[in-house]
Here is the input.
Amino acid sequence: MAKFLISGVVGGIGNALFKRLIEAGHEIYAIGHDGEGMQKLQDQYSNFKHYVVCDYTNPQDIEKSCQDIWQYGPFDGFCYCSGQTQVQSVRKMKYEENLKLFNINFFAFLEVLRLFVIHKPKNYVSRVVVLSSISSILTTNYTAMYGASKAAIDAFLKNASIELINFKISINSLQPGYVDTKMGRILEVLGDFEDRIAKSQPMGIISTEDVAIELEYMLTKMPLTVTGSCRLLSGGCH
Ligand SMILES: NC(=O)c1ccc[n+]([C@@H]2O[C@H](COP(=O)([O-])OP(=O)(O)OC[C@H]3O[C@@H](n4cnc5c(N)ncnc54)[C@H](OP(=O)(O)O)[C@@H]3O)[C@@H](O)[C@H]2O)c1
Here is the structure.
């Protein structure tokens, strides 16, 4: 049995991972936005040990909001499943909205990672996995800023992975194509969603279960020598 810290256990992908890890007998600790949702999960699962509520819109507040979680460590793994997307044309972009997206997808992850590293005994081995996206490397229309926030994660972790070897941390990202969650279906607003998926992702929309299987592997079984890598879960996306 191991201890995992998950950011975003109520969301589509985070919840699928949460259930797999709980069913495998691991202990789960969580950081999330939706306190009511996390309380419902805790009422249901005795292995869900503790959670803290945190809004990633303001990364400077994270240290205070999360201070209660570190006493339960050290954690064998940390998975950042939180994130937001944005469907926006370049002409209509607003600085405040872009900053909010980057705060939640990128700067909040950096801040939780920083706290994770400083609260972990230096020689305790841990795996960190963060949800990037196929948008980091392939193009999707009207999601340029989202793709940029995911590319920032991938560039950051490739570089940070070298420093984190000294702290016995392997760090990697997963880049899924469209996944069957509220977020994955956001492009429905543009119309012709099924056609878009069929054209760009021949194996169809990816189930949250497939993503959770891959995340569980990366958090529990993937060799520790795999670090600084971005793993693609493409559904045939091209
Ligand atoms: N769905 C896809 O097609 C797809 C594809 C590639 C990558 N991804 C990435 O996978 C991750 C999970 O996505 P999903 O599809 O599971 O989306 P989702 O169901 O919308 O879940 C998003 C998660 O982000 C959290 N979150 C949103 N705003 C927040 C804020 N201001 N402060 C703190 N937490 C916040 C939510 O927390 P609460 O529930 O607590 O509010 C939720 O747990 C994201 O990073 C996403 O970019 C998704």
Notes: Helices lie at 12-23, 35-44, 62-65, 95-119, 144-165, 193-200, 208-220.
